[in-house]
UniProtKB/TrEMBL annotation:
Residues in Exocyst complex component Sec10 N-terminal domain copies: 30-138
Protein name: Exocyst complex component 5
Domain Exocyst complex component Sec10-like alpha-helical bundle intervals: 149-698
Family, per entry: Belongs to the SEC10 family.
Pfam entry (one): Sec10_HB
Length: 699
């Protein structure tokens, strides 16, 4: 048995033999083990001979059966070959018979077709004779239940009658035509009755008969008319139309052989009759009296019509249903869309003007004319170059003449105009129309409102030498900045999609750039003059509060203040202005304006300090003032400004340092790079400058 291992087999045999399991032990008997091996080998030889005989017997039996099987296969192959030959003979015979049958069928058809035609012609001649005699006796004409057969006959007779000469057969042609018309009317009436009863199968039968009649189109018209009875009872004609078309779409294929044509005709009828009259009623009411309502209705009706068209695109209406539906929509709205943009621009202009006027009226303000022309242009150029106020200052009483409510209203009106423009404009005219709307926005928002407010704000800025001047221009800057962000957002969100792929894009961008640059010039001018006013206010404070005795006290040993009153008031004023600038601007503009104010503030203090002479204690007080100014300068958060005040603070040390240390202080880190004349000018402010010792040390 597999798996067979000879060594293991010998081992097992040795262990089973008495005296063969212990090598070298007392019980080990080699003779007995040898005897057992010899006997076992003989048994195996006998078994091998027996198995070999059995194998030979089986091989012989297998060879015998193989010969018998091969012989049987040969017999089957012969039988199969005989059967295949019989099949071929049968197939040839069938083909022969089929050919004969087809030939016989062709012969029979060749004989039968003329015969059928002759029989048909004979019947038609019989019916034609009845019309000639003027008396219809055949059952097919008198039995109302055979209207289908009568229709088929009269349709054929009608075709034949058309070929007959009129002079000889005028009377019979007239009778046939009359009968043709009567049957046609009966069939249409039958179709109408079946439709009212909801009998789809009967409608299909009658429609199939009428298909060959001239009145088939009238049958379709009747069907369309009856479909609409009771379909438009609600206020929403568009929803009613969609539901009707959906219902008819399911039914029309069961009745007519050309359902797409019938459905298309129904849709055409709905558009040309129902929708057109509805649109006309809605628009003509407001066309001349209320432009706002007219534009809203036009947009709403056009949108709902196109939405209905999108729903109808799901149905089979023939090959080019997109063009078909577009033509129907165009036919309804063409008279309104031709001059749409003129109505839009006219309404937008009057509406924007009204919004602005209503705002100015609420402020009891009469808009003053900014003016144009040679004199005004000359003034503008001079003002830009000199930054001087040309003309009297106007007191605006703190009013900026900018309103976010006005801006939101103008932008909302323009947004709606852009939406209508996108929907109602022809694609080829869309960029041009959008540009016109944008131009209206620029005119009323940017020019009439923002620019006017800037001009008024500029005129309201007092001169730099005015006392206790109220500075409102930064409020104008803040509001103008906010408004322009809104303007820019609408430009990107609503205008750009309409013009992005047209030449008008560059024109709009240039127009926007020009208006921004124009406003930036006026904003820069106003901010500059406002800064001048701030410096002027500081000058007034210093002139009013700073006394010469502040820096040359009569009693050097009895100075109780840490810094002068003028310093306190100037720093308080500056901190308020810094906070106002931060609240009025954003981004880098804050740092730019604060740096300019800081530089001017430093120059003012520098020049102010140059006006006094300083005792030792007065110099200490000046250092304290400058230290306070420097602390104020930290609020600017501008490195340059802080550096300037650090240097000024170092310069003030020259006012108090001992004469022997002057050269050492002047060569220090903060003063080493300064011009010697500047250092000298500060040393000259000391009251002891004339002493020979100080002059000698500084020479």
């Amino acid at each position: 048995q597999e798996p067979f291992v000879a060594d293991e087999y010998i081992e097992r045999l040795a262990w089973r033999t008495p005296g063969g399991g212990s090598r070298g032990g007392e019980a080990f008997d080699p003779k007995r083990l040898l005897e057992e091996f010899v006997n076992h080998i003989q048994e195996l030889q006998v078994m091998d001979e027996r198995i070999q005989r059995k194998v030979e017997k089986l091989e012989q039996q297998c060879q015998k059966e193989a010969k018998e099987f091969a012989k049987k296969v040969q017999e089957l192959q012969k039988s199969n070959q005989v059967a295949f030959q019989h099949f071929q003979e049968l197939d040839e015979h069938i083909s022969y018979v089929a050919t004969k049958v087809c030939h016989l069928g062709d012969q029979l058809e060749g004989v039968n077709t003329p015969r059928q035609r002759a029989v048909e012609a004979q019947k038609l001649m019989k019916y034609f004779n009845e019309f000639l005699d003027g008396e219809l006796k055949s059952d097919v004409f008198t039995n109302s239940e055979k209207i289908k057969e009568a229709a088929d006959i009269i349709q054929k007779l009608h075709l034949i009658a058309q070929e007959l000469p009129f002079d000889r057969f005028s009377e019979v042609k007239s009778k046939i035509a009359s009968k043709y018309h009567d049957l046609e009317c009966q069939l249409i009436q039958e179709f109408t009755s079946a439709q009212r009863r909801g009998e789809i199968s009967r409608m299909r039968e009658v429609a199939a008969v009428l298909l060959h009649f001239k009145g088939y189109s009238h049958c379709v018209d009747v069907y369309i008319k009856q479909c609409q009875e009771g379909a438009f009872l609600r206020n929403d004609v568009f929803e009613d139309a969609a539901i009707l078309c959906q219902r008819v779409n399911k039914q029309v294929g069961e009745i007519f052989s050309n359902p797409e044509t019938v459905l298309a005709k129904l849709i055409q009828n709905i558009f040309e009759v129902k929708l057109q009259s509805y649109v006309k009623d809605q628009l003509e009411e407001h066309r001349r009296s209320d432009a706002e309502q007219y534009l809203k209705n036009l947009y709403d009706l056009y949108t709902r019509t196109t939405n209905l068209s999108s729903k109808l695109m799901e149905f089979n209406l023939g090959t080019d249903k997109q063009t078909f539906l577009s033509k129907l929509i165009k036919a309804i709205f063409i008279s309104y869309l031709e001059n749409y943009i003129e109505v839009e621009i006219g309404y937008l202009k009057s509406r924007s003007a009204m919004i602005l006027q209503r705002y100015y009226d609420s402020k009891n303000h009469q808009k003053r004319s900014i003016g144009t022309g040679g004199i005004q242009d000359l003034k503008e150029r001079l003002r830009q170059r000199t930054n001087l106020p040309l003309g009297p200052s106007i007191d605006t009483h703190g009013e900026t003449f900018l309103s976010q409510d006005v801006v939101v209203n103008l932008l909302q009106e323009t947004k709606q105009a852009f939406e209508r423009c996108h929907r109602l404009s022809d694609p080829s005219d869309l960029p041009k129309n959008a540009f016109r709307i944008f131009s209206m926005l620029v005119e009323f928002l940017c020019t009439e409102h923002i620019d006017y407010a800037l001009e008024t704000g500029l005129a309201g800025i007092p001169s730099s030498d005015s006392k206790n001047a109220n500075l409102y221009f930064l409020d104008v800057v803040h509001q103008a900045n906010t408004i322009f962000h809104l303007f820019d957002k609408q430009f990107n969100d609503h205008l750009m999609p309409l013009i992005s792929s047209s030449p008008k894009l560059s024109e709009c961008l240039q127009k926007k750039k020009d208006i921004i640059e124009q406003m930036e010039v006026k904003l820069d001018m106003g901010i500059d003059r406002t800064l001048n006013c701030m410096i002027g206010q500081m000058k007034h404070i210093l002139a009013a509060e700073q006394k010469k005795t502040d820096f040359k006290p009569e009693d050097e040993n009895n100075v109780l203040i840490q810094y002068t009153n003028a310093c306190v008031k100037v720093c308080g004023y500056v901190r308020k202005q810094v906070e106002k600038i931060r609240n009025s601007m954003d981004g880098k503009n804050v740092d730019t304006v604060l740096m300019e104010l800081g530089v001017r503030f430093h120059r003012l203090i520098y020049e102010h300090l140059q006006q006094y002479s300083y005792s030792c204690m007065g110099g200490m007080l000046a250092i304290c003032d400058v230290a306070e100014y420097r602390k104020c300068a930290k609020d600017f958060k501008i490195a340059l400004v802080l550096q300037l005040f650090d240097t000024l603070h170092a310069l003030c040390n020259l006012l108090v340092v001992a004469p022997d240390n002057l050269k050492q202080v002047c060569s220090g880190e903060q003063l080493a790079n300064l011009d010697k004349n500047i250092l000298h000018s500060f040393v000259q402010l000391r009251v002891d400058y004339r002493s020979a010792r100080l002059a000698r040390h500084f020479s």
